[in-house]
Amino acid sequence: MRRVSIAVLLVLVAVLTLILAEACSPTISAPHAIAIALENVLTGSTELGRSETLPTNIQAAQMTLAAAQERATGEKSVFTVDDPNMLVWLVSMEGVWTPGGFISSDYAAQHPLHHCFLIIEAGTGRVLSILATP
User: Fold this and answer.
1) Residue 113 confidence (pLDDT)
2) What does the pLDDT read at residue 1?
3) pLDDT tens per residue across span 5-50
């Protein structure tokens, strides 16, 4: 009986440690970054129309802003007003979106976007950019 109590106590300590680590962490977690990204793509934004399908193949990777911009755009030199060494989450997913902005609905319907990248500030959860490609 005593061994069971000690085992339960150790499990509780481990769970509480994980909870406190998340609460005290200077950055948001990968699941939190994914939740922020999904909220943005499912409701739509200025840059991107609302998702027409449920996104799939959702992945989040933590890196610097410069590395995230390079991975999302394929270009090494990207202009930003934010610190290029800032820690961010790059969330990528596949789905079907229409371009946002001030374009005709005919053009948007004929040019769907299938790959989406969101760059999210790791410290605050602020969405820095959204990029979608065919």
Assistant:
1) 87
2) 52
3) 554 444 444 444 545 555 556 889 999 999 999 999 888 777 787 7
Q: Is the pLDDT higher at 51 or at 23?
A: 51
Strand order in the sheet with 127-133: 56-64, 87-97, 113-121, 127-133
Handedness of CA 121, 61, 118, 30 (dihedral sign): negative
Domain boundaries, the chain: 27-133
Residues 97 and 49 sit within 8 Å (Cβ to Cβ): yes
pTM of the model: 0.75
Task: Give 117's contacts (C-beta < 8 A, 6+ positions apart).
Answer: 68, 71, 72, 90, 91, 92, 130, 131, 132
